[in-house]
């Protein structure tokens, strides 16, 4: 009998749009990441995790088959791989956002239904074929290409395309425009599989939960700031309604009993609006600080 496998094995995109942000997020969560683009595996001994650098498209395959326990990939790539084996999305990671959309030469199409009997080129043929099926749009010929799909219509292998749109600049430059509703909204996600029978399931589960908590900590630290202010007791209820915090704000007494100090996490995007509203309520000494790291 071989020893049970106890090291958490995690897939990380090795190139493309998601790679750098994925490594940044893991570094921020306290994991060691590779320095050299040629490294295929990195062992983080302190945290007991092995990172495998793989093509973003292949991450779902490794995790779905149980060879790797966790992976970072794109939601669109995950759905395109259609792994039936029980890999599942654990959480969105807040970067690599894009939409997956239909597009055609300017002025040529207005709705997806017009594609019946036509050819649509894409690198995401699994995702696209499933979507046409759920929409009840039959008889579309999905043409698989490896990239640069914007050129396919002009070159005559397709009538329309379905592709990742971020800024829309690529489509515009190719003389194309989107039509119909977005097929999906994507971002980088964390996926988990079922592992293998010879894994030490308890150790893997403990380290998986730790990694998830760390990534959530990074997300919160990126999305929230800490706000401190002083307010007169009679205005406290109204102020707390503006800054309810994640669970409940901290209220501390001040030497002047008519006043209290409040400390609460608030969404970073609302910082200035909240400071204005608190000031109007009579709050003073309003201080904002960034959150370096956290466990929620
Ligand atoms: N501007 C973008 N271009 C491509 N993919 C993007 C963009 N923004 C976000 N993404 C996301 O990145 C993932 C695609 O990564 P991938 O590395 O396969 O694409 P790529 O940059 O087109 O790489 P390559 O063409 O070299 O295979 C998808 O989840 C996609 O939604
Ligand atoms: O809306 P935008 O901001 O212009 O970004 C979207 C474009 O970027 C990606 O292409 P990439 O540069 O990866 O080339 P590829 O088609 O060869 O994959 C994607 O396939 C789109 O073409
Ligand atoms: Mg690409």
From TrEMBL:
GO terms for biological process: L-histidine biosynthetic process. SUPFAM superfamilies: GlnB-like, Periplasmic binding protein-like II. InterPro entries: ATP-PRT_HisG_long, ATP_PRibTrfase_cat, ATP_PRibTrfase_CS, ATP_PRibTrfase_HisG, HisG_C, N-reg_PII-like_a/b, N-reg_PII/ATP_PRibTrfase_C. It catalyses: 1-(5-phospho-beta-D-ribosyl)-ATP + diphosphate = 5-phospho-alpha-D-ribose 1-diphosphate + ATP. Its EC number is 2.4.2.17. Residues 221-292 form the Histidine biosynthesis HisG C-terminal domain. It is found in: Cytoplasm. It comes from the Bacteria. Residues 55-215 form the ATP phosphoribosyltransferase catalytic domain. Pfam families: HisG (PF01634), HisG_C (PF08029). Feedback inhibited by histidine. Gene3D superfamilies: 3.30.70.120, Periplasmic binding protein-like II. One of its GO terms (cellular component) is cytoplasm. Its main location: cytoplasm. Its cofactor is Mg(2+). Pathway: Amino-acid biosynthesis; L-histidine biosynthesis; L-histidine from 5-phospho-alpha-D-ribose 1-diphosphate: step 1/9. Keywords: Amino-acid biosynthesis, ATP-binding, Cytoplasm, Glycosyltransferase, Histidine biosynthesis, Magnesium, Metal-binding, Nucleotide-binding, Transferase. It is an enzyme of class 2 (transferase). GO terms for molecular function: ATP binding; ATP phosphoribosyltransferase activity; magnesium ion binding. PANTHER family: ATP PHOSPHORIBOSYLTRANSFERASE, ATP PHOSPHORIBOSYLTRANSFERASE ATP-PRTASE. Catalyzes the condensation of ATP and 5-phosphoribose 1-diphosphate to form N'-(5'-phosphoribosyl)-ATP (PR-ATP). Has a crucial role in the pathway because the rate of histidine biosynthesis seems to be controlled primarily by regulation of HisG enzymatic activity. Belongs to the ATP phosphoribosyltransferase family. Long subfamily. This is ATP phosphoribosyltransferase. It comes from Garicola koreensis. The lineage of its organism: Bacteria, Bacillati, Actinomycetota, Actinomycetes, Micrococcales.
């Amino acid at each position: 009998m071989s020893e049970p496998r106890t090291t958490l094995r995690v897939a990380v995109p090795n190139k493309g749009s998601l790679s750098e942000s994925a490594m940044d997020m893991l570094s921020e969560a306290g994991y060691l990441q590779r320095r050299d683009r040629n490294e295929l595996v990195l062992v983080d001994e302190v945290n007991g995790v092995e990172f495998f650098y793989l093509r973003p498209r292949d991450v779902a395959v490794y995790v779905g088959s149980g060879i790797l326990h966790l992976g970072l990939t794109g939601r669109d790539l995950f759905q395109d791989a259609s792994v039936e084996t029980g890999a599942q999305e654990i959480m969105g990671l807040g970067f690599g956002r894009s939409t997956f959309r239909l597009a055609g030469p300017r002025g040529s199409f207005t709705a997806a239904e017009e594609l019946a009997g036509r050819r649509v080129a894409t690198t995401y043929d699994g995702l696209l074929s499933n979507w046409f099926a759920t929409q009840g749009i039959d008889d579309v010929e999905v043409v698989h290409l490896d990239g640069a799909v914007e050129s396919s219509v002009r070159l005559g292998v397709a009538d329309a395309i379905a592709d990742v749109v971020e800024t829309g600049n690529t489509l515009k430059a190719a003389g194309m425009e989107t039509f119909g509703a977005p097929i999906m909204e994507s971002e980088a996600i964390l996926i988990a599989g079922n592992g293998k029978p010879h894994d030490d399931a308890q150790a893997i589960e403990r380290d998986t939960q730790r990694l998830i908590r760390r990534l959530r900590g990074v997300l919160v630290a990126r999305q929230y700031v800490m706000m401190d202010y002083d307010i007169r007791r009679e205005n406290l209820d109204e102020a707390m309604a503006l800054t309810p915090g994640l669970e409940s704000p901290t209220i501390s007494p001040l030497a002047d009993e008519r006043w209290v100090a409040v400390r609460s996490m608030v969404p970073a995007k609302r910082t200035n609006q909240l400071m204005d509203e608190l000031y109007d309520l009579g709050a003073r000494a309003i201080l904002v600080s960034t959150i370096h790291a956290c466990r929620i």
